[in-house]
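So, can you check this one?
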Amino acid sequence: MTVEQNVLQQHSQKHQQTLLNQLREVTGTTDVQLLQQALQVSNGDLVEAVAFLTEKNAKVPQQDEATYYQTAQITNDRYISVGSQADTNVIDLTGDDKDDLQRAIALSLEESNRAFRETGITDEEQAISRVLEASIAENKASLKRTHTEVWSDSPNPHERKRMENCPVGLKNVGNTCWFSAVIQSLFNLLEFQRLVLHYSPPARMQDLPRNQKEHRNLPFMQELRHLFSLLVGSKRKYVDPSGAVEILKDAFKSSESQQDVSEFTHKLLDWLEDAFQIKAEEDREGEKPKNPMVELFYGRFLAVGVLEGKKFENTEMFGQYPLQVNGFKDLHECLEAAMIEGEIESLHSAENSAKSGQEHWFTELPPVLTFELSRFEFNQALGRPEKIHNKLEFPSMLYMDRYMDRNREITRIKREEIRRLKEHLTVLQQRLERYLSYGSGPKRFPLADVLQYAMEFASSKPVCTSPVEDIDTTAPPGGTIAQLPPPASAGEQPDACVSAEGSGSGLQASQQQQQRVSIHKPFTQSRVPPDLPMHPAPRHITEEELRVLESCLHRWRSEVENDTRDLQASISRIHRTIELMYSDKSMMQVPYRLHAVLVHEGQANAGHYWAYIYDRHHQRWMKYNDIAVTKSSWEELVRDSFGGYRNASAYCLMYIDDKKPFLIQEFDKETGQMLSGLDKLPPDLKVFVEADNKLFEREMEEWDALQARKLQQEKLALAAAAAAAAAASVAVQPMSTEPCSPDNTAAPQHDPEYMEQQSPSGDSKHLQEDTERAISKAAAEHDEKSPEALLNTAMKVEYTRLLRLAQEDTPPERDYRLQHVIVFFIHNEAPKKIVERTLLMQFADRNLGFDERCKSIMKVARAKLELIKPDEVNMEEYEMWHQDYRIFRETSVFLLIGLELFMKKSFVEALMYLIYAYQYNKELLAKGPYRGHDEELIAHYRRECLLKLNEYAAALFETGEEAKVNTGLSIMNDLVVPCLPLLLVDEMEEKDMVAVEDMRNRWCSYLGQEMEPNLQEKLTDFLPKLLDCSTEIKSFHEPPKLPSYSTLELFERFGRVMTSLTMGRTPADGR
């Protein structure tokens, strides 16, 4: 074939593919053979082809939804060219007015072709522009929002600072999670990263671009270089990709529909290919230019087939290789199906057959092999796209030998052997099924069990001569009082037909007179009457008959069990043989390692994207979810990517040639030296990144200066308040005459707020009463003791009381930790010195009392405090323990108010209290199991509160009224959505994960429903936020202000709430 013929053939194939795409878009038909038949019948005339398909579809009876799901077949669309996916905008061709329909179709096609001739931009490019424009508009709109958004930047730049050696994330600038997933996957291909970073624009770029491609691609490449350089060396935790998105948006015209994300990946590679092609043509004038993008991402396959009896062979190029998911269990099954199309028996025979089919054999695989998993299909019966959630497994190491053209003959032999084994396997499985499901009726049982039951029946001894003759037919009707049987004498034995239960009842009746005998009620009582035999038994059987029957049944059961074991072993051997069919070394020479998995969660019309990327340097998987980049595992990847679990599944797999380490190694191509960080960047990009880092450092310095000024102002305000309070105290109180120890500066001058108050009310009054009670008890035991001895005795009395409270096994209604800090300390095994000092502080309270005995004890206690040296008690540890107790009390107040509001059904107000109760409680429990409250109980009510709010918001949305819809979405945006990461952050909490899925599914269920355009727009705007799987808390509400409760009031109110929960609840999940 000459070069001219080759070019003409490629042009003809592209033209035919364009016609197929247009015909698919207009009709919604995805059967490639049917589309080709329509084009062939119409000689390439689109209008006639549409008419042909319309008439053909009109003859097919309409199916209802249930029938459709049972009869829908897997589409046969496996074309390789870009843009071959079915569009979601499908014209309804089921109407009767075919003339009007054809005129509308012709007008639509003419308009589409005219737009392409005038602008040079295809419909798919315009569709991608619509996605980008929506993203930019969303980003600009988000800047105008006044309420807190889940993706808003933290005002504290230190929270946005990159951790050392941690990958940099990409900010979601408004529904651009798909952009982040694709770009991060490509960036982590270090060979691709090098190509982009070291891309130098052509020399003629300084002049005006010659054509539209240069005008579009060269600025995009420059922006992509800037973005990649920031991902390499930025000090920010995440960077903003708006520049690249803006250029992509400006490259196309505006329009109104949504494009599949896989189309973006196709187009991105096209744009990059064009940009590198411009450079390659300039660098190698006169020679055939080599495009590095083509060499990295594109391969070739040989199509061998028969078309109407004529054999053909064509070599075609491919980039992303599309694979059907529906109907297959793993990646190899998908590939096997993709490599064989139609009936191929005629390929291997010399006979001229009229059958058509083809095989694909790879002749050249690219270093980066990308599989596009078709998880979206158009449901013609329902008139909308749907996502396929089927489970599809894929390996971390993929051997491609069986699909290579050089192994064609070996693979065919192995495929034939596998086909023969599978046929044999089917026969064996059918035979095994007859053994495991024996019988001719609707209920079937294992044959071995049937024989065992027959053996048990035959060997049973008859209890009665007849199953009916021992029943008293003269018994009174149900519900009457039966006559009590006479008491059995010691020597009497119960009748053989009377069960143990019956005899027991008679014995009890003899002891307790006037007792009602239980009567079986056949229509209201399901148990069997107690006086029936437990098992049926043969009426008459001789010893000889039983011996022969048992012998036969034993032998038959043994034979059945042996046959079953043999069948199961044979099936296992065949499965193992099929699994190992390609495991010999000759078929493991083309290894491809999994590099990245791009995941989609949601439905066909909306969802969230993220990527799992393998870090070869640290030998681990990383999860790239917008700004959040976290360590992951193969187990997490499997759960989120295989499908069949929730609504998440992989839609793109990126494998790399395992024999080409340069793809993922960091080195300089010229020197061969290993590079990292800013050393990887060319000079111009190094300057760019360093300038951005200086801006970020200046932002952090300004923040630190601002916080220092705020702290200084707070200190001055506190000092002024303290001075005013001191002046007021001097004016009303006499000067103290107590001696001051020179070492007392090391001890705190103020007790914890729950230990001492300025007035003898509230906590201080309650604590004072306990202290005075202990002193009185100590004085009663030793009336003439000195104040110091009385103090020691009183402290022992008080400690004994508190120890007894701590050792009680009490329910949550009586949590004595709320009554006294020392109970909390004992529970958590605080150091003895901390407990002693805290108890001493209790007896050193200035408000202790007015009698001389209490005053003298208080003075002794204060003197002891002043004598404690700094090295005797670690004051930092002391303050830490008391700070933990303060947090415990705050957590208790959060929980108390949250539960009270929840029981009043004030879910909006209750949510924040329950959220902060859970967060504070979790921090406490991380230090010890007795530092907080029941975590499962708080998690349950936090989860229930969110579910209630979600239901309320959804009900408001369903009304369709503008005000109510806005209120419902406001509840979701302001309250529910920001809280979802809190439920997702701990993925071991399965109930929280299920609750999040329930909330998401509730809103995703609206996608297929008819609604007003403004509601559809609001829903489309809201769903990406709801489906965002990021577990990072980007911004949140301030904790609500807490009222001040005395110790006694807090203890009593907390007890009342817990009591009402215990009495009013049914066993709930999570407890």
